[in-house]
Amino acid sequence: MAGGDVIGRARAIVGPAQVLCEPADTAPFLADWRGRYRGTALGVVHPADAAQVAAVVRLCAETGTPLVPQGGNTGVVGGAIPDASGRSLVLCLSRLNRVREVDPVGDSLTVEAGCTLAAVQAAAEAAGRLFPMSLGSEGSCQIGGTIATNAGGTAVLRYGPMRDLVLGLEVVLPDGTLWDGLRALRKDNTGYALKHLFIGAEGTLGIVTAATLKLFPRPRSSATAFLALASLEAALEVFSRLRGTLGDRVTTAEILSEAQLAAVLAHVPGTVRPLATPAPWCLLAEVTDPMAGLDLAGALEAVLAEGLEDGSIADALVARSEAQAAALWKLRHSVSEANRKSGIVIGHDTAVPTARIPDFVVRATAAIAAVRADARVMAVGHIGDGNIHLVAILPESARTTGKPLEPAAQAISAAVHRVAVELGGTISAEHGIGQSGRDALAVFKGPAEMALMDGIKRLFDPRGIMNPGKVVGPATP
């Protein structure tokens, strides 16, 4: 079927104003926010509800039109960007933004996929509960996207990634069937756990249109600290002490290299260096508890005092107000903005066993230098779960040398991935595979795993129309 006919039928489903085709209108949906991935499309379709999503998917299944689902377009691996063929429809889910139900007794809420993460957090807070997922992009990323990528964020240490926060899903399958799996049950042992096939699948097996999510008691006591550390080994020692003393109250443990902190201070207005003591590494730690009136700051200070005394901590600051804690968190949440302003970003989403983090950073940094001596290396990540984002920054002048950048970026990433896998780690912990990790996935996954994933893809999507060219399966059919 001709592209014009597909567009005409899509307009009949969602309304003429909800199908964008003019280049000026579609441009924001055809490139990722970092500008690394760009594509073209027949048009951008904005359905209003799950029934319209299902009708658009049936249209695509009937006509063999590739379909690329998109949430807030905040990803970093190109998973929501179409290819250059111009044959795809981009399905934007932002109009599916209703909070359908909040159940504070059952500690759950049901929301549509286009709700922003911040809106979900607010709905939980209004009910006196907590939805713990927290990301720097929470004001714009959408819940469907966080499910599709199995997002992690800064609270994984205590609450787990998105996979651990989903109770049930509503999904449009590749033939347009609407599967209603919106169950709020904590226990359901009736056959295969189908929801887990769609969490982290990046829209390649179906399109999440709604989700039932777990809620938790709201923290009523908290304390936040910022530490200066001489080494990653010291950071692991301090983290181990925190967990040994405060247990699951340790909600967050975020590591930043001095180079990363300096980039934030240089490029993000309103950020201030918390400690005067220079140190190669900084640790942002937060402890919380649902009981009110606990002196968590005092408990935190007692643990830190041991480290200050034995020298594992060079300096420390415990926030004395919510405003001071927010200022510390601004440093962590501004990393992506700062890196984008620092040069050409080649980011990574590796994870290794926690005890091997120091080895990984040393070896991977040396591997990057061997590929590009002009690369600046920054590190930030979640030290408690081993997910360290090692970021190579190339100077902007590299764009004008006449040599293509992509081979250098691929060589850097291959070197970093190789080190992570050699240390028993993974090439992707929370960002997904998308376009950027697709080739690496085939290299570092075993043939048995790849065959299983390919088989699942063919079973669900035999025509290969669902987000083609991402994760597994052929490119645009």
Annotate the secondary structure layout.
Layout: H1 3-14, E1 19-20, H2 23-26, E2 43-45, H3 50-63, E3 67-70, E4 89-92, E5 99-103, E6 108-112, H4 117-126, E7 129-130, H5 143-148, H6 156-159, E8 166-172, E9 178-181, H7 195-198, E10 207-214, E11 216-217, E12 221-229, H8 232-246, E13 250-257, H9 258-267, E14 281-289, H10 296-310, E15 313-318, H11 322-333, H12 335-342, E16 344-346, E17 350-351, H13 357-371, E18 376-382, E19 387-394, H14 406-422, H15 438-444, H16 447-460
Parallel strand pairs: 2-4, 3-4
Antiparallel strand pairs: 1-2, 5-6, 6-10, 7-11, 8-9, 8-10, 12-14, 12-15, 13-14, 13-18, 16-19, 17-19, 18-19
Helix pairs in contact: 1-3, 8-10, 9-12, 13-14
InterPro entries: FAD-bd_oxidored_4_C, FAD-bd_PCMH, FAD-bd_PCMH-like_sf, FAD-bd_PCMH_sub1, FAD-bd_PCMH_sub2, FAD-linked_Oxase-like_C, FAD-oxidored/transferase_4, Oxid_FAD_bind_N
Cofactor: FAD
GO molecular function: catalytic activity; FAD binding
Which segments are poorly predicted (pLDDT under 50) over 5 or more consecutive residues? none
The average pLDDT value, as a whole number, equals 94
Named CATH topology of the largest domain: Alpha-Beta Plaits
What's the structural domain tally? 4
Structural class by sheet pairing and helices: alpha+beta
Number of E strands: 19
Reading off the top of the CATH hierarchy, the class of the largest domain is best stated as Alpha Beta
Q: From the coordinates shown, what is the CATH architecture of the largest domain?
A: 2-Layer Sandwich
Overall 3D form? globular
Q: Number of helical runs? A: 16
What proportion strand? 15-25%
Percentage of residues assigned to helices: 25-40%
How much is the radius of gyration in Å?
23 Å
**What is the end-to-end distance?**
14 Å
The major sheet is characterized as:
8 strands, antiparallel
InterPro entries: FAD-bd_oxidored_4_C, FAD-bd_PCMH, FAD-bd_PCMH-like_sf, FAD-bd_PCMH_sub1, FAD-bd_PCMH_sub2, FAD-linked_Oxase-like_C, FAD-oxidored/transferase_4, Oxid_FAD_bind_N
Domain FAD-binding PCMH-type: 37-218
Keywords: FAD, Flavoprotein
GO molecular function, one term: catalytic activity
